[in-house]
Design a protein that fits this description.
single chain, 282 residues, alpha/beta, TIM Barrel, 11 helices, 8 strands, globular, binds flavin-adenine dinucleotide
Length: 282
């Protein structure tokens, strides 16, 4: 089963090594597409693992700089030790953010399950007071996100708006696709009007078209927002938006801990589950 999933994962993951991600970013840059590189991993349990994550991100930032690729980095606070302590994750994040700042680069915090939402936002807001070069993902499937977006706008936060990829209970998350999509559009418009840097991170063409229409109507500068998509999804749309002159960024994951990310991609789409099941019986 793991072999079959690794076959499926190839579409979504640059490879196991840092150099795989750098090469993928170079290829995308040549198509005028920017990159956000994520070293795969989450929910680590020891301080030593957290140290390894920090070392990997520092090397990644060095290599991005050395290779001259246009790429920010994206990370999960549980990969930096959030499950051990908030203080450890924050201290580790500072090391990565300081190196990024030295290179004029940016660090984005991914948003994990709802067990981490408050702690991730708290860490972000506290670090945002000291560092201009950080952004945070917010999930439109969470009912709390409207209040979070309002708070983040008031703090000058850069927000990457996503629909959300974790299994959450109905008391805290919208379960109906239309409600998630409507909330996405609502929050997206508030973010676009705020003037804060906004990443519209979706492959949903209806939402992307509405973002284009709204930005045009409200005369929102194209430099204050970008479209972001995952590696392996809607490749031609990524290219055509870049050709139209929009800022487009592809999220490029790499590393050996690819299984949880792959399972999230698998669950997102029933065709993906059919693919795996079909190959299982081939
Ligand atoms: C840059 C970026 C960063 C992200 N960061 C986070 C994060 O920090 N936390 C988090 O919870 N989630 C994150 N996500 C994932 C996000 O929450 C969604 O799960 C994912 O983007 C799919 O939703 P959608 O917005 O594309 O809309 P959907 O309505 O799910 O999909 C729209 C269309 O996109 C295509 N599509 C969507 N998913 C797939 C797939 N897996 N395989 C093939 N085609 C697909 C299909 O054609 C589908 O009809 C991120 C997504 C992006 C693009």
């Amino acid at each position: 089963m793991k072999g079959l999933l690794s076959l499926f994962a190839k579409r979504y993951i640059a490879g196991t090594e840092r150099s795989d991600a750098i090469e993928t970013a170079k290829r995308l840059n040549s198509l005028r597409i920017l990159a956000a590189i994520d070293h795969l991993g989450e929910n680590i349990k020891t301080k030593e693992e957290a140290d390894e994550t920090v070392a990997e991100y520092l090397s990644l930032l060095d290599e991005i700089r050395c290779a001259g690729v246009s790429a920010v980095v994206s990370l999960k606070l549980t990969h930096l030790g959030l499950d051990i302590s908030e203080a450890l994750a924050e201290t580790n994040a500072v090391v990565v953010i300081e190196r990024a700042l030295q290179y004029n680069n940016t660090v984005w915090f991914d948003m994990e399950s709802s067990a981490c939402t408050q702690r991730t936002i708290d860490a972000y807001i506290s670090l945002k007071r000291r560092f201009p070069n950080i952004g945070i993902a917010i999930q439109s499937y969470l009912k709390r996100s409207e209040a979070d977006v309002k708070l983040l706008i008031s703090k000058g936060g850069s927000v990457r708006l996503v629909k959300g990829a974790y299994k959450e209970p109905p008391d805290i998350a919208f379960k109906n696709k239309k409600d998630v999509d409507d909330n996405f559009e609502r929050l997206m418009k508030q973010l676009l009007l705020s003037g804060n840097m906004t990443a519209i991170a979706t492959h949903d063409e209806k939402i992307i078209n509405e973002a284009k229409r709204f930005a045009d109507e409200k005369k929102i500068s194209r430099s204050s927002f970008e479209f972001e998509m995952l590696l392996g999804i809607k490749r031609s749309l990524q290219r055509s938006l870049a050709e139209e002159g929009f800022q487009v960024r592809t999220y490029i994951p790499y590393g050996r801990d690819w299984l949880p990310y792959t399972i999230r991609r698998l669950r997102e789409r029933k065709e993906n589950i059919y693919f795996v099941v079909r190959n299982l019986f081939d």
